[in-house]
TrEMBL record:
<dbReference type="InterPro" id="IPR016135">
    <property type="entry name" value="UBQ-conjugating_enzyme/RWD"/>
</dbReference>
<dbReference type="InterPro" id="IPR000608">
    <property type="entry name" value="UBC"/>
</dbReference>
<protein>
    <submittedName>
        <fullName>Cell division cycle 34 homolog (S. cerevisiae) b</fullName>
    </submittedName>
</protein>
<feature type="region of interest" description="Disordered">
    <location>
        <begin position="1"/>
        <end position="27"/>
    </location>
</feature>
<dbReference type="InterPro" id="IPR050113">
    <property type="entry name" value="Ub_conjugating_enzyme"/>
</dbReference>
<feature type="domain" description="UBC core">
    <location>
        <begin position="1"/>
        <end position="87"/>
    </location>
</feature>
<dbReference type="Pfam" id="PF00179">
    <property type="entry name" value="UQ_con"/>
</dbReference>
Length: 111
């Protein structure tokens, strides 16, 4: 509900039978920015709707997905969150990329 990300590799490596996660799926010293970002990308590409951290969001997402985007509740909430985040970024002086070209790093010309 607040935008926090819930992925196994960020959880402490303790044995927690309630979570359904193995300790080996949790945080360990080999994790780095790359593996964390890949996990976030994976979560965004294929959200786990069968064991969600936010049940209400999962239900809305499934309804949106199964209706082939005809149910607009999820889409509208996401749109409002994106606009709010853009406003926060503007206020903080952060330039958020909005096009594919802006997301890509341009190679430097050889000297």
């Amino acid at each position: 509900q607040n935008g926090d990300v819930c992925i196994s590799i960020l959880h402490p490596p303790v044995d927690d039978p309630q979570s359904g996660e193995l300790p080996s799926e949790r945080w360990n010293p080999t994790q780095n920015v790359r593996t964390i970002l890949l996990s976030v990308i994976s979560l965004l590409s294929e959200p786990n709707t069968f064991s969600p951290a936010n049940v209400d969001a999962s239900v809305m997402y499934r309804r949106w997905r199964d209706s082939r985007a005809k149910d607009k509740e999820y889409e509208n909430i996401i749109r409002m969150r994106v606009l709010a985040t853009q406003a926060d970024a503007d206020r903080d002086g952060v330039k958020v990329p909005t096009t594919l070209a802006e997301y890509c790093v341009k190679p430097r010309a050889p000297p």
